Amino acid sequence: MATPSTRAEFKTYCLRKLGFPVIEINVDDDQVDDRIDDALSYFQDYHFDGTEKMYMKHQLTVADINRRWIYAPDAVTFVTGVFPFNNSNASINMFDLRYQLRLHDLYDFTSVSYVSYEITMQHIRTLELLFSGTPQFRFNRKQNKVFIDIDWTRDVQVGDYVIIECYRSLNPSTVTLTGTVSYTAGSNVVTGYGTTYDQQFLENDFITFNSVDSFQVDKIDSPTSLRIRGPMVNTAANVSATISGNPDVWGDRFLKKYAYALIKMQWGNNLKKFAGVQLPGGVTLNGKEIYDEAVEEINKLEEEMQIINVLPNEILLG
Predict the structure, then answer these.
(1) pTM reported for the whole predicted model
(2) DSSP state, 49?
(3) Is a pLDDT exceeding 60 seen at residue 114?
(4) Are 136 and 79 members of one domain?
């Protein structure tokens, strides 16, 4: 199959491209899996198709305010912004300046100009940046923590929402959550046992319970409780939960070439240890040549990545 959609098909595709089963590929299955993981990690870190832009919503708890940082799941690879902690972007009322401007100056777009309105709105935004500013933050994906440099005792309170603009890596495979979950028909609340929801996926993800019921996550109430969009149809207790992956990732042109080259390099590296050994029939192993060819292919692919497929500058520059 030229376009794999599962890890097993992807693995078979790479080995077949190397010559299997016509040629014996001297690479262990675990080594193949390791090289596929390496290729997938590189793809998620640098390729623009390896991540998706999203907005992570988190409701502050007492624990968040006391420790002064917010947990970011492993799927989050980059954080590019934190929304301001004020109500300037909230729903406006009749006493709000913008409401009055729209009411008195923009009641009829055909008879008035919107230029003055636009200039006024820019002025208001400038004042917001001057007096409120944009929250400064620090993030390192190895820590899984978003540190927000604000006055946690004054600027926020328990129950407030923090909106974080971020990028998450695309997982091509289905993930099974640890622990079990229970839910009741007609309810939209799911309770977990040994399951930590806010560490394994984000809101708006699609989750499947017991391989039967599939819903989209609406809100994570706590590390062990979440709400889904729409009531449950069935009742279940202590069943497994899975998160659907993005199988189209396995068919990416760059990922296939890069994984193939890494496996080829592993093959050559294995054979290099037997350089000069002559097999029956006069055939001599030449692992170094295979290794060198693979290294050259990898270098070309990584150069292509930096020129064509690299992530946007807003991510790489923070």
Answers:
(1) 0.79
(2) T
(3) yes
(4) yes
